[in-house]
Amino acid sequence: MLWPAALNYLVELNTTGKMNSNDCGDTSNAGSHQTDWRLPNIRELLSLLDYGSITAMGGTTMGGDDNSFTLSGLPYWSSTSTAEPLQGGRFFYCIEPFGGTVQLCSGIATIGGISVIVVRGGLH
Questions:
Q1: CA distance linking residue 56 with residue 64, whole number of Å
Q2: Which residue among 23, 26, 71, 115 sits deepest, i.e. has the most Cβ atoms within 10 Å of its Cβ?
Q3: Burial of residue 107 (number of CB atoms within 10 Å: 0-12, 13-18, 19+)
Q4: Is 90 left (phi over 0), alpha (psi -120 to 50) or beta?
Q5: Is residue 45 within a helix (H) or strand (E), and if so which, with residue range?
Q6: With contact defined as beta carbons under 8 Å apart, do 51 and 99 qualify?
């Protein structure tokens, strides 16, 4: 998804508890949903990768214990942007999960799409 769509999904998640009209099943806030979801910064996003599971073809997992899941092969948005807009608009850092590498991803144009993982809690 493009950067504006990622932000729209965050608004929807924080407002309704749904993302892309899909119920996320979050009932941890006294039976309602949490309202402080956000995109992780690049350091937070990298800290979620399980570097022991990265393979060239099979992807990687993110999270740990009972909360782990396999990532798609698409890059994942972070909230960290370049200091200055580059030619063609603002760029944000994203990670490519198969190699765990940081890339610059255009906020207005993507090839193949960029995925979203959301987090909540204090910034690190």
A1: 20
A2: 71
A3: buried
A4: beta
A5: helix 42-47
A6: no
